[in-house]
Amino acid sequence: MNYPSFIRILCLLTATTLSLTTIHADMDDPYLWLEKVESERALDWVKARNQIALDELTSTPSYTDIYDGLLEIYNSSDKIPGVAKYGAYYYNFWQDADHERGIWRRCTPESYALDEPAWETVLDMDALAEIEEVSWVWKGVTVLDLTNERALLRLSDGGKDAVVIREFDLTTKQFIADGFRLPEAKTSASWVDADTLLVGTSTDSLGATDSGYARAIRRWQRGTPFESATEIYLGDKTDVGVFSAVSDSNSGRREMIVRSLTFYDTEYHLIGANNSLTPIPVPLDSEIGLFQNQLLVEVKSDWEVGETTLPTGALVAINFDAFMAGDREFKILFDPQPRVSLARSGYTTTKNHVVISTLDNVNGRLAAWRFEAGDWSHIVIDTPAIGSASARGIDSDTSDQIFVTTSSFLSPATLHWQTVGKKDRVALKNTPPYFDKTGLEMTQHEAIAPDGTRIPYFQVAQAGIKLDGSNPTLLYGYGGFQISMTPSYTGTWGRSWMAKGGVFVLANIRGGGEFGPAWHQAALKENRQVSWNDFIAIGEDLVARGVTTPPHLGIMGGSQGGLLMGVMYTQRPDLWGAVVCQVPLLDMLRFNKLLAGASWMGEYGNPDLPEERAFIEAYSPYQNISRTQEQPRILFVTSTHDDRVHPGHARKMAARLEEFGHDFLYWENTEGGHGGAANNAERAQLHALGYEFLWKELSGSKP
Asked: Which tens digit of pLDDT belongs to each residue from 72-115?
């Protein structure tokens, strides 16, 4: 098993100086009241602006057509049901028109291979929400892998990141009345055995970190109050958070503390007898995993090991016990190349293999290493020439079976079953085509950034489109946290944009992970402008090639991509005809004080430090709105219950635009957390608003 960076998911100044800086910034902000998420005044403001957006965008036949098409996709019974194997069953969480909040269900592997599996409902979320009168949203499950009979369910009221944890019996399909239970909080929990958990929760009496995550890890025994659970580790308040991890049986069942000092710097500690702790001496910016008796390390910056340098972006392996005893003879399983990198998913494990996912010029590739009798051997796994490919071990304790998923912008996803090292691949499931791809072609291009770097992007358009600058074009981007934008099949983009004649473009800008850690690190903190410049370069290249012109060029992005949209709106308003800004970060001088924001200072910097505040303030959208400059029209989309990125970012930005007389639309969903929607109907509405807005602004008429 591996411990990815989401678990991290996250001075010379005097305290007086920091306080005065913050107070001064707050005094200059007349819209702080909009940060009070559920105050009557703020919600009245939201309600009024929501109505304006709904009145304009939902009253046309074209909106209804887009909405109905999206809802049909989200409710489709032909979607591939993603599964996880626990014991004898494949488990799946499913939402459709009849199950608005969803059902957790299971079937046997043999049944799953059929066109119509015999699903057995384990938990009905709609029924639970009705009985308990709580707007429950499913947030996942942790199953006790030793028996596969007990599970910890994570349930969110309204879709927030904060969850309630409740123990569930998989044999009786009932919650356990006197079982493990934790109140709403940002909580992580790992099974040690049937009667023991390792727990970190933000409601611990020892307090939470500045980022709102657990600061302490406790060992909690069944039948005892959580407050009396043994404290194993206490981190600092300035940490992103402290988490726990327990490896599977195939890896020797080791217990660990994972302390995220920043979003990218992590300490790992092995828990020993009597809760003793032994540091695992890997670089702070690396990520580790366990496989059989091997320690796997993803190297994020050059690592000097004796006379050897393990390169940035490599995946290496070594005997765990030997490493802890001082051995440093690593086996390199993946050696990065200039345009070939480890994918964000990295790798998955089976009983005898490490299956590696890579990106070759942003197209997915798969390979595997077999570990047997202390020796490694390499295996290539077939993948399409252009598109996305990913693999997932089905049961790493007992088999070498994997699921392989392949797709591209124009090729619906196919789920394959196969045994690593054998030619027994079987196509189990196929996503139906959700849009007519007739005449569409996918191409890959490069723009040149101001510093000379080649920035790739994908384009989907009708073959032989006229390069006369008249084509409505949607450019989508993200560019942060080493997350890659890959060419996979998305019915939402396809049906709502591509099939209606729009050109779709996906940007692979720096800040993402398309070419490994270095591609990401090139846009960190003081270098953030590099990412903004890359996106602008793609926009300019589309215009230079004649694909479109600014009045017909729209842009869209969410979360970090929402920040990207805000920067594009303020830095290059002349280049875009319309902007869709979803669940965004926008006030970058206060992002670290709102919800989980402090955890992202490793990405953006600390605005409370003058030397870092200077480069953040230079691009922060909220502080860089021009009162007089002509601006493109913008649609903000956010969620009241987003407890990751505060809705105050979008609210305050919209209020400032209103003050300056700029034209905008604003939509805030009352449920849904950071995803912006809690069910398929809300999801269809959220996306239909965005596409209707873009068609209206970029084409001058409805599609």
From this structure: 999 888 899 999 999 999 999 999 989 999 999 999 999 999 99
**Segments forming the whole domain that contains residue 613:** 5-10+34-71+434-699
CATH classification at residue 613: 3.40.50.1820
Quickly tell me which residue has 């450019």 as its tokens.
475
> Which has the closest alpha carbon to 420: 438, 395, 440?
395
Question: What is the Rg, in whole angstroms, of the alpha carbon atoms belonging to the chain?
Answer: 25
Q: Give every CB contact of residue 597 below 8 A, 6+ residues apart in sequence.
A: 211, 585, 590, 591, 645, 646
Position 24 in a domain = no
Indicate if 674 belongs to the active site. yes
Residue 630, helix vs strand vs coil: coil
User: pLDDT tens-digit profile of 299-311?
Assistant: 999 999 989 999 9
Query: Is position 445 annotated as part of the catalytic site?
Result: no
Number of H helices, E strands in the chain: 14, 39
Residue 621 lies in a domain: yes
pLDDT at 231: 96
Q: Say how many C-beta atoms besides its own lie within 10 A of residue 283's C-beta.
A: 16
| Residue given tokens 């209804």 in the structure block | 64
Q: Catalytic one among 269, 416, 520, 674?
A: 674
188, 251, 484, 559: which one is catalytic? Answer: 559
The contacts of residue 294 (CB under 8 Å, 6+ apart) are 317, 318, 319, 320, 371
| Angle at CA of residue 500, ends 412 and 568, nearest 5° | 90
| Spatial distance between the Cα atoms of 315 and 333, rounded to a whole number of angstroms | 5
Q: Quick check: helix, strand or coil at residue 178?
A: coil
Which letter does DSSP use for residue 208 in this model? B
Let me know: does 250 contact 291? Beta carbons within 8 Å: yes
Residue 613 lies in a domain: yes
| 236-271 pLDDT, tens digit each | 999 999 999 999 888 889 999 999 999 899 999 999
**Which residue type does 559 have?**
S
The span from the CA of 401 to the CA of 407, in Å, is 20
Residue 156 lies in a domain: no
Specify the number of domains making up the chain. 1
